[in-house]
Structures are given as C-alpha cells and as structure tokens.
Amino acid sequence: MRKIIITACFISALFQIQTFAQFSIAVNAGLAGLKYKIKEGQSKIKPGLGFDLGFTRKFSKHWGFVSGMGVMQYNTDAFMNNSSEASENQVDDMGAGFKYTVKTTGYKETQNFTAVTIPLMLQYRTANAEKTQWFFNTGAKLILPFDTKIKAAAQRLDLSGYYPDFNLQINDLPQHGFGNVNNWSSDSKTTIQPEIALSALTGISFNLKNSYRLSIAVYCDYGMSGMKKTTDQPLVTYSTPINSGVVANSVLEINNTGFVRSLNTGIQFKLDFGKKKLKVIQPEMVDWDKDGITDSLDLCPYKPGSPAFKGCPDTDGDGIPDNLDNCPDVKGLQKYKGCPIPDRDKDGINDEEDKCPDLPGIAAYQGCPPPEKDSDNDGIADAFDKCPSIAGVAENQGCPVIEKEVIMQTNLAAQNILFTTGTAKLIGRSFDGLNDVAKIMRKTRGLHIYIDGHTDNVGTDDLNQTLSEARARTVQLYFKNQGLTIARLHAAGFGKLRPIADNKTAAGRRQNRRVELRLSY
Known about the structure:
Blueprint lengths: L1 H15 L5 E14 L5 E5 L1 E12 L4 E18 L3 E8 L5 E9 L1 E19 L7 E13 L2 E16 L4 E3 L8 E12 L4 E13 L5 E11 L37 E13 L130 H12 L15 H13 L4 E7 L6 H21 L7 E5 L12 H7 L1 E7 L1
Parallel strand pairs: 15-16
Antiparallel strand pairs: 1-3, 1-14, 2-4, 3-4, 4-7, 5-6, 6-9, 7-8, 7-9, 8-12, 9-10, 9-11, 12-13, 13-14, 15-17
Helix pairs in contact: 2-3
C-alpha cells in the first residue's frame, strides 16, 4: 500500500509539472541484483530489466534536475559451499532451548524481487540542444522493494540439534526434526527494506524531429543504506516431524550473511519529448522604478536604487543592499548578512563574546550562568542529572553506564525464565539466572529492573493479558524475596501485543511466550 501511494503521488506530480518540464520514457537492461558476502558461500548478480518514466527540469543551458519513477526487476543467485553450516538458537516443541545446525550439500537459492525506484539527480549537459549532446547525471535513488521470492534447492540437508543443558547432540531423530533430507526444494518469500543508492548515468543524446531526442547511456546504482533486515532465523525452518516439510528462510535471514546492498548497472535507451519554449522578446528599454537602470539589468526592478548596488536600495545605510540584507531597516555587519551582532539568549552579552550563547548568563562568567549544585561531583548539575546522587556520564544524562557483561547476563537469565504450561509457576531451572540478576541488583545502588511478560496468540485476549501480568508479578515477587525493595522492581504484562516471531508456527509461538528483563537507572 505504501508503494502504491508513493506511485500515485509521483504520477500526480508529473502531470502538474508537464508545462515546464521535459518528459522521458526509458528501458534499462543489464545486471541487477543484491551484492553481499556469504561466510560459507557466494552470491551472483543476474540480468534484470526495468522501465522508467521521468522528467527533466532545466535551470540553464547546462544544468537541470532529473526525477521520476521506475520499475526494476532484481535477480540474484546464492550458493553455499558443500558441507557448509548455518547455526541458530531455537526452542523445541517441549520448550527446551537448543542450537539448530543446518549443513548443506549442493545448496542453491534464487532471489527475485521487483522494486519501485525514484531518482533525485542533478544533470550537466553540453549547451547546443540542436545537436548531439553529452550529458552526465548524478545523485541518489530511493529503492522501494516488494517481497522477495525465494526458490531454494539442495542435494542434501543435514539437520541436527545440540542441547547445551544436557550436553546432547542429536543427528538422527526425524520425528523430532533432526535428520537428513535428500533432493530438497522449497519456495518461500522474505522481506527486505527500502534503500538509498548512489546513482550515476552518462551518455549521448541525439536530436530528432518535433522536440524528440533519443539517448543512449550507461548507468550504475550502488546501494548505500543496506536492504537486509535484522533477523535471527535458521537457513531452513525447524519443524517436527522432519517429513512435515522443511521450508527455506533464505540466506538473507541468517547471521552469516554480510552487508546486503543493491547493485544495478547496464545500458539505458531513452526517448525525451516536450514542448519547445517560445522565445520572449523583451522591450528594448523598460525602467519600472524610474531609477535610470534598465529592468533587464536591475536586480530590484520595482524599488528605486543606485548603480553601485545594481539598482537595489540600501535603506539602513550599512553598505549592504536590501536584496542581500536580512535586516534592511537596521544597520548591521556583512558577516551577519546585514543584521547586528546577535544575542540569542537575550542576556545582554553578544554571541561573539558569550561562551554560552544559548543559555542566559552574566558577564562575570562570560555569558554563562553561575555554577549549579553537583551532589555526586560528576560534572553534571543536579538540575540536569537524572541520577544526582550517583556519579555518571553526560551521555547517559548523569547516570552510570550499565556494563555490557551485566546486560548480557541479564538477557541470558531472561531466556531461561520458564513456567509450567498455562500457569505462572516458575520451573526450577529458572532460579540460577534470577539469583545472578538479584546479586547484581543488590550490589548496584540505584539500579532498577523492568519485568515484562508476553504470551503467544493462543487463547482469548483477557486470558493472555492476565497470564502475562501474573508471570511478571511472579518474577517480581521472586526478586523481592531475594532482598530487593519493591520500589526497584517494575512488573507489567503485555499479553500477545508485542510478538517477536510469527505466531503461525509452533517455533514462533514458543519465542513469543517469554519474560523480558531490562535494567535502567
């Protein structure tokens, strides 16, 4: 729907500018696909075809602005080396976490998607429009992709799981999703995000009859912002039993694929058409403001001025003509475009001498306010310090920075918070991780913890909301029993409102049934 709206807006805009712009239709042919590196494989860009509808707004005989809208087909092949592996953490149908490994032989994947492209480019061209012209366009291009179609195939897939809690490796248990799949193939879809690409085009334009021109050019669009979404999926979906169907997720969704950008290069054939501009014959001598300067040479043709300022007046007499003076009625300086020296904070001290130009102060402190109280001596005044009694850093608004290891330990504990099915009763395996978090909280003054409960979409909304709140309060009570004050423990339930995976699959629902822990000052 978003791409349809953008397309409609551009078509409407093209009709609005038809009276002063030159239109064009073009065909693009060359290599068009996704450029990225695979840790244990390679990708290959394939030929693609596209069509453009554009316009050029000319500013002068050499320069113009180019925009419009196009549609381009992108095609890419991806290969995995024989015996290559892709691993991700998963949860099985019993709620146990394991490392899911997909080992491939003869794996090939074809990726196809169509994208709407919107260029915003500056054009330079040689001057004589009646003859052959050379032109060069450069700028940016917005690429809005539709869903990518995936066709995957492999001679063999070896699916295995490692359960770290039991130090158990399972390689052959088809009813539990592990084993071998021969001569496998799968069709699926994946989503990539819009991208901004650098774009350049150069070629030759030939003049035809009736204001038509034929252009032949070479072009290149090189993606910069990246099209891969952050995902944590296996190469193929974990399913039980194995013969129920192993569906491809694409190499674009696994963590051993590098930065994904679009690349489109090839040859363009374009036909330009538009109305010829009529030559306007100016009167030999027109002086509207009667200042003795012809209007064709007068920069201010409707206000009497002086020859020194090319026909413009200088109302405030500061030597800067009104057409260049942002304060034409007040004397000022050239460096401030005709305005006086500014005093943005209105404290009576000019910005040139004010060390705090946006904060009212006094002369004794060179325009800055007197020093304020700083209880924790961290260099941040209490009025601006969110943790006034604990020394912190300015980047964290006066609060300390939580160490990365602490955050990782908290996240690990959250992943191991488990409950009896359909209840808010904690399973014993949850206690070690919760005890570690409680120990961190006891020795870190001022640190708070936010406990968020979530469910899948099975059951009614009221039941899911109630269960998520109950599980969050159970963890809150556990921390309280470990010696933490209730004021530092914040519990909330969100039911099914914030899924992190697809509720249509058992694996997705297991990921959505969770309790998250967040630390904050």
